[in-house]
Amino acid sequence: MRNIHAKSTMRSNTALAVASTSALAAGMAQGAVLYTQQNLVYPLPSVPASTPFDITGDGTNDFSLGFDGIDTANAQKPYIQGMATTSTVSTAVLGRTSTKSGQFGPWEPGLPVTPFGGMIDGSSLTPIFTARAYLDQDGNANYVGDWPSNARTDGYVGVEVVDTASSTTNFGWLHLIYDGTASPASLTLVDSGYETTPGEGIEAGATNELGAPVFYKLPTPQTVFWGSTLQLQSLALGAPPPVFQWRARAVGSGAFTNLTDAGVFSGTTTSNLTINGASAATMLDYTVVVSNSLGAVTSSPPATLTVVSPAATPSPQVLFPGVAARFNVSVAPGLNPTYVWRKSGSNLSDSGRISGSSTAHLQVSNVQAGDAASYDVVLTSGSLVVTSSVATLAILPAASESTYESALVAAGPWAYYRLDETGDPSSGSVVAWDNAGGYNGVYGTNVSNGFTGVAGPRASDGYPGFASTNTAASFSEYTPYCWIPLPPWNLNTDTATMLAWINPADNQLSLGGVLFTGTDNPTSAGIRYFYQYNSATHYFDIGYAWNDVTTSCVFWDSQILPPIGQWSMVAAVIQPRSGTIYVFNTNGINIATNDGTTTFAPFNPFTNQVMPFAQAEYIGTDHEDTSGARNFYGAIDEVAVFKRALSQNDLQTIYNAALGIAPVKLQIALVGGNVQVTWPTGQLLESTAVNGPWTTNSLAVSPYTVPPTNQSRFYRVRVQ
Hints:
Blueprint: E1 13-15, E2 17-19, E3 33-43, E4 49-53, E5 63-67, E6 78-82, E7 119-120, E8 125-127, E9 132-134, E10 152-163, E11 168-179, E12 186-195, E13 202-203, E14 214-217, E15 222-225, E16 229-233, E17 235-237, E18 243-250, E19 257-258, E20 265-266, E21 272-276, E22 284-292, E23 295-298, E24 303-308, E25 317-319, E26 325-328, E27 338-343, E28 346-347, E29 354-355, E30 361-364, E31 373-381, E32 384-387, E33 391-395, H1 403-410, E34 415-417, E35 431-432, E36 441-442, E37 473-475, E38 484-486, E39 496-504, E40 513-517, E41 525-533, E42 540-546, E43 554-560, E44 568-575, E45 578-585, E46 588-594, E47 617-619, E48 634-642, H2 648-658, E49 667-671, E50 674-678, E51 683-687, E52 695-696, E53 704-706, E54 714-718
Parallel strand pairs: 15-24, 25-33
Antiparallel strand pairs: 1-10, 2-8, 3-12, 4-5, 5-6, 6-9, 7-13, 10-11, 11-12, 14-17, 16-21, 18-19, 18-22, 20-21, 22-23, 22-24, 26-30, 27-28, 27-31, 29-30, 31-32, 31-33, 34-48, 35-36, 37-48, 38-47, 39-44, 39-48, 40-41, 40-47, 41-42, 42-43, 44-45, 45-46, 49-50, 50-53, 51-52, 51-54
Helix pairs in contact: 1-2
């Protein structure tokens, strides 16, 4: 073995060598190990630097770790080297040719990595004839143990320490992590081991005296989809190197029997057991027996495999008439089944209002009372046939709709949460029904609702358009699980409207969320309170966020402060080049528009990017802070989302319905030889041109009959 450096003034001389992955010696029983937990991190310095360490524990530094600064090509490359004997240190650069003065061969590959459990001894080491052994070789992957500069590499490196006075050699290992993805790049010395008896060899990762096998990692229970490929893993060391035998039994009882490489099982005599296709037959208890000539050890407790249906259950739905019912099922990765959706046990096919009956996504458009039934899907993949659990579809009676609900449903919401549930949220199982899209949520355990009598807007608040028993959800600040998580809406749009009724109990927290999604800038969007004080009130205003990864990330303050202790209808209308906040209440209407030019939201260029809404949404919080420090404080009701920008007239119509003013529907029909005009309320206006001028027909009463004429006539209705 050739030393890198000789240091005659100290007890130990250090030689650096690399452990080969192809030569693992059988070895004999190993002596005690001097183990050290290091956890030393060396970040990439701005100037060349190295840090020595002492693997033998005798007070003499044996090696040093550092980042090279010889030239620009190697300025960020980590290395390990033995201690120098004189002030002259070789500056050979490994793995490439250089003509720079003072840098000359021989050229060596980068430092290979020893696998966990690999034997490090004289038969498995190759000397490095240079001062520095690099851990990074520009990511060229030409050598065993290459440590790419743009990746995170974790491995063991074998070393030897030579005592020139006694001519003895001790072997050791270093556990290193090089993270080229960090900024700055870093090299971590996780831990190290060093044999105290010279010349016997040491297994990479060994932390104590070994003879009979010792477990370093036990196989753990797993839950996987039906048909999945999985691996049960173990790590064990012993000297001589041990052999493995996986065994199995029925869950919870019976004798264990040896497994063989057959059928779905492979690796039955290795450290890792692979199961290629989980099924009911593989739902077993598993153990592994590890043995050598000095003893045997069996993993305990058994690792139980649980296999679940490959189909995620479609969600039950309670919908208003006229909206679309969407049933979705997801399957295990790697499966490509056929789908057959069923209604009350009968197969469906695409026709009329039914679509997607042979896909993972069934849709029933314009649902009616007759669509109320149980729906499931049968999946077939080869010999595997699985039927999902049943999802019920219930249709709300049209007579149950309040004036407000009728108006909102007529506007075509993507999702609509009435928050009329009266179950106890502390159970953790109360569903927050989406009565328009089926994106049902679940009440957090610390939310209050109709169970404890939380009232929503009612006639007593000036809103007779709501049911007299209308309820709401109530949220508290600084309270975890005081929110309602919702599944992803998958809007994938830059044009949307988010609407909610709010009744603040007090001034709100900074970034308190009303309706919000995402946990970082590229994904967060919704209605929340702004994080700067209103200059006039010194309290936090309502606003919206609509973020992306560009410089036009939007956190916008409307400068509107909804009144405390009073119900308001709040809407955020998002369009690509503008965002508008509306606040309706019995005091009037407040409107603020962000077009990128306002002094409190200057953006150039300004744009609301397409947002996926592919993460969970939350009612009552901005979930980036899960402690409750961004919770809304007060009551929220009637939450709705639209995949379009509602106009001010649209919103006014919805708000008017809360005031008890039903939306006006003007209808014209031919009755006999006459034209008949009908409307529910208001005064009839008429004109000979579509753009007016309009005159009031004060004598007209619905239904109003008009004989045919040769002149066009247009009608509209005005509601005071």
